[in-house]
Every structure is written in structure tokens, then in C-alpha cells.
Amino acid sequence: xxxxxxxxxxxxxxxxxxxxxxxxxxxxxxxxxxxxxxxxxxxxxxxxxxxxxxxxxxxxxxxxxxxxxxxxxxxxxxxxxxxxxxxxxxxxxxxxxxxxxxxxxxxxxxxxxxxxxxxxxxxxxxxxxxxxxxxxxxxxxxxxxxxxxxxxxxxxxxxxxxxxxxxxxxxxxxxxxxxxxxxxxxxxxxxxxxxxxxxxxxxxxxxxxxxxxxxxxxxxxxxxxxxxxxxxxxxxxxxxxxxxxxxxxxxxxxxxxxxxxxxxxxxxxxxxxxxxxxxxxxxxxxxxxxxxxxxxxxxxxxxxxxxxxxxxxxxxxxxxxxxxxxxxxxxxxxxxxxxxxxxxxxxxxxxxxxxxxxxxxxxxxxxxxxxxxxxxxxxxxxxxxxxxxxxxxxxxxxxxxxxxxxxxxxxxxxxxxxxxxxxxxxxxxxxxxxxxxxxxxxxxxxxxxxxxxxxxxxxxxxxxxxxxxxxxxxxxxxxxxxxxxxxxxxxxxxxxxxxxxxxxxxxxxxxxxxxxxxxxxxxxxxxxxxxxxxxxxxxxxxx
Length: 543
Known about the structure:
Layout: H1 3-28, H2 30-37, H3 43-59, H4 61-75, H5 77-96, H6 101-104, H7 107-135, H8 143-172, H9 174-181, H10 183-187, H11 189-202, H12 207-214, H13 222-227, H14 230-265, H15 270-284, H16 286-298, H17 300-326, H18 328-336, E1 339-343, H19 363-373, E2 379-382, E3 390-393, E4 396-399, H20 408-428, H21 442-460, H22 463-470, H23 476-492, H24 495-506, H25 514-530
Parallel strand pairs: 1-2
Antiparallel strand pairs: 1-3, 3-4
């Protein structure tokens, strides 16, 4: 690797790490953001709404891919980089000084979501540019290994966000962090922005783009060329459903859903969960380079497909093992004293309430809401028409109540009494209010989380090289960015919200895993049947 190649990889990777750091602060602080900006909602709805704010950035990523991909193919990779980092950095910094819900009311979450949307647009243009830039500086037989460094940046950005959060928590204490300390990671990002801008300004333009520009071969309409011609559009579609959709859900399950599952379902302390995830990231991250380099030898496709298949086959037993290791008391209680909700199906509403506007008043809905608030996994049974819902915990039955038409004071009194009865019964049945640190098997937790990260590295390590190799230079930035960001922004970014919505509706805390399993299985089938291997492709052949 030459000095120039090292500089290209280092500069592209470091700048991209900082962008991911900015982007992931939301996910790492979802529980606190829920309390700060969505304080007007109940706890469960506030968390889901915070996840939606997190997901909003992902939703707009494909649009950022179109806007900045077009610019990158028309004016160059370097200056497009610069614009994206400025938008990302400023949007992140402003969150750190944004008043919360208690200060300015509904304006707080509205502004927060707008800033999150700007972040998503910026990231939509960033990744494709970084991958394209490094790939166009890479030798034919080293493209997988070189672009794999870009693939580490998302994980390193997550790791950096977790470390800054953890350091701040330790320095000022949990109470101060929850009140105002959570702002510190957002505010210090201004220093990362300054470094990123300096790095991006010191970089040279991609030689492939310079050559194409000198020859007058740059695309005048990258979007219409990339998506208006079937020969290119069909490759974009196959890249989405046969590569990036499955890669995305495996990635977000392994890095984000695992973290949320630890804190929300298993009630592991937030700082401890962040530390455990960080440890797994340290162990697992080198495998991005391992699988990227391996893809130069045996091919990209088989590694990505294997990652999708293994994930789909093992998620259920792995997350059950995670429950046993992280909260053994909960696991034991689930085995000995199962929870059953018996209710008339006709009075059971859809439990997903992201806006917090739905008022649950039926006995079925009230019962399920109380269990969801306690993160208790349960089964459902159909009750007789007109019957009042009940919760059976082990051998004890707690009858629910209907709040329809009740005065507010009476509804509150009944609600408090019902919650206490359920909480006392759960406690008697061995269900813990939170995970016991003394019983946590931290070594096993790290092993399980590392396994999930290694699956991430299998699907993600080779993906940049493969996407680059699918498209010609003049529309490469635009063409590869869209399937990547639809896959990772929509299929992946919406995973935590969708998975928790499935859990809320079904009651089973493992059922959210069906979402990544189905998507990964689809990608495996389509990828195996219709996506070609690309490792020996000359990326300049069609210029």
C-alpha cells in the first residue's frame, strides 16, 4: 500500500467515522431523548417515538443519496464530501443546545426531527462518496481490502459515541447525565467537525473522476442515466433486494437492536449495556478487514450470502441465550411462570402507539399496556365475548378493568391499583424489575454480542466493493448510493421501530426478530439466484 493510498483510506475513513459518530448519538441516547423531548407521552410510546426520530434520519437517506450522488457524479467527490460533513456537524451541534419539551413544548421534538432529517440527507450523500473515492484509488486485486476500511467507520463511529457517552456518565454521574450531561456528546462534536473539514480540504479529487472530467465524459444527468435506463435500473433493484436489504437488517440487528434489547427487554443498566456492546465492537471490528480482504480472494457474493443465511438460522436461539446470560432471573421466571393474557379479541386494539394520541381504555388494552410497560413477554388467549380481560402469571390471575366512561380520578385510582397488583404478582413469580449485575454472565454476553458483530462484518465488509463494481464510473456515486441507502435507511433504519412494534402487538419479546429473519432470507434467495459475482470486474471497462 503506497503512502498516497494510505492517506486516501485514512482521510476518508476518519472523516466518515466522525459523521457516523454524529448520526449514532441518537440511537445510543434513545431512552434519554425519549424523556427529554417526548415527555408528554407515556414511557412506552415516548421510547417508540424516540426510535422514530432516530429512524427519520434513515428514511430520508435515499433522498440524500439522489441529491448528493448527482452532485458527486457531476462536480466531483471531494467537494460533495465537504458539504455533507458541514450539514451533519452543524445539525448535531445544535441538538446539544436545543431546549427540551419542558422548556418549549412541542416545538422541541419538531425541531429535533428536522435536525435529524438534515443528518439523514447528509449521510445519504456521504457513504457512497467515501466508498467510491476509496474504490477508485484501489488496485484491482485489493479493492475489497481497501474499501473494507470504510466499512469499519460505521462501527467505529458507534464505538466512539458509546465511549464519549460512557466517559461523560462516569465523570458527572447518572443523575446529572440524564438531566443535562447527555448534551455533552452533541456539543463536543463541533471539534470533530473542525477536524473533518480540515481533512476533507486536504484531500485530492478522485483520479478516475479527474480523468473523466478532462475527457469531457462526466454525466450531465446522472439520475436519469442511473434509473431511467432499464439496463442500469435492474442492477439497482437487484443490488437492493439481493444485497443491501439483507445486509442492512443483519447490521442493525447486530449493533442496534441488540443494544435496545439489552436495555429495554432485559433491563440491563444503560452504562453497562453500552460497555458490553463496546467490548464486542473492539473484538469484532477487525473482521471487517478480514472479510473484505477474503472477498478479494474468494468473491464478495458468497460471504454476504453466508452472513444472511447464518443470521436467519441462528437469531432466535442466540437472543434466547442473551436473555439467559444478561437476566437469568427473567429467563427462569419465563420458564417457570409464563404470562397469559386472556381477552375478547374484539376489544384488543393495535398496540403500536407512536404518536401517543391513542387512549387505551378497554380491559384488554390496559392489561397489555401494563405488561408492555414492565417489558414482560406474554402469550395471548381468546376470551368470551363481553368478558373482562385477565392476566395469568404462573397460577395467579389478576383481573383487568375497563376505563371507558370512568371519571379521571376513578380511572387513575383503578389504574394505580391494577398496576400494583400486576407488579406484586410478577415480583412474587420471580420477574425482576431490572437485571441483577451480580448474576449477569458478562463474558457470555460479550461472546454473544461479538458473534452478532461478526455476522455484521460478513455482510458489510465486502458490500462497498461489490456495489462499486456493479456500476460505471460516470454514474457510480448516484447508482450505488440509492440501493445502499434504501437498504440501510429503510430496511435497516426502521428495524428497531418495526421490531418493537411487532413485540408490542404480539406480546412476545422475541417476535421482533421475525423482521430481520424474513428480510435476510429474501436477500439470500434473490442474491443467490440473480446477483452476479463482481470481484474480477474492471470498474473502468464501461467508461
